[in-house]
Design a protein that fits this description.
By secondary structure, the protein is an alpha/beta fold. Helix content is 31%, strand content 14%. The chain folds into two domains: 131 residues, 3-Layer(aba) Sandwich (Rossmann fold), CATH 3.40.50; 171 residues, Rossmann fold (3-Layer(aba) Sandwich), CATH 3.40.50. A six-stranded parallel β-sheet has the order 8-7-6-9-10-11, sandwiched between helices. The protein has a five-stranded parallel β-sheet with strand order 3-2-1-4-5, with helices on both faces. The protein is globular.
Length: 350
Amino acid sequence: MSPETDSAGTTPTGAPRGGPRVLVLRALGLGDLLTAVPCLRALRRSVPEGEIVLAAPGRLTTAVKATGLVDRLLPTVAPGRAVPTGLGWTGPPPDVAVDLHGNGPPSHLLLQRLRPGRLLAFRHARTPGIAGPEWRPDEHERDRWCRLLRWYGIDADPADLGIPRPACPSPAPGAVVIHPGADSGARRWPVERFAAVARALDRAGHRVVVTAGAGERRLGRRLAADAGLPPTAVLGGARDVPFPQLCALVADARCVVVGDTGLAHLATALGTPSVVLFGPVAPRLWGPPQGTRHRVLWRPGAGEDPLRPGDAHGRRPDARLLRITVDEVVEQVESLLGRPTGAGALAQGP
């Protein structure tokens, strides 16, 4: 789910500062931004008087502002998760450029063209001038980028991932939030199963709301109708839920039920209990911190690649997702909320 778009190029946290200018490349989505919060916080500590500029899609402006860690957004344009072909950087070269986008020549060369004073990046055989640490494909996303900064002498803690709670009120305080959408079909659990979960939780006395991103109106309305919820239970759909409102909703939710999407990372960043359904990428790479606040459901098969057994960008729901049952999800939610209801008898559905 994408946050609401603000005017591109605005300054998220205030006027430009007078110290060193640090350019961070992370031209990806909401979940990617939130997994980078520990690194952004570490960079902020390292240059308290400097200016931190984040190269990221303009649609993330309000989310970037919510972190309180970035002085200016440099809007980027690129299809999917591709590296932008150029950056609209003006003025003197950045004092420091940090590649939090990838580990290959496209992102390295994009930043090298700006001639930064220092470039912090993973090493790669095709960019031999960068003497960074080795890339590890089996590393959790938060751990990976914090390790990069530590290699360059910047202390970064992957557990330091919280963002401030919003000041605006929640549109549905105390609700269980269900988000059925995802950027790819491979990470989208069937809507009829989400509806069965919503129906079970509603019948158990929980307030249930459904969030839908731009273009997901039909998905959200179908879920609500199948679950017996009123149309007013659906937030968003025609457009994204404005990020401050979305942030307040998640912050004051009792629990979030979601696939491996940006909303799952928002729940983590705000400390909201969550049940996250994983497939086709393992929670070992993208999951929430271990502990009692978050539950992950992940059903790999025998003999499969333990980390990436399926196509993360495929059109059909991944086989690992389809192995997760409605009863499992309801039971995990009730376990988090501490209100067992005999979920199996209530969760009638596929």
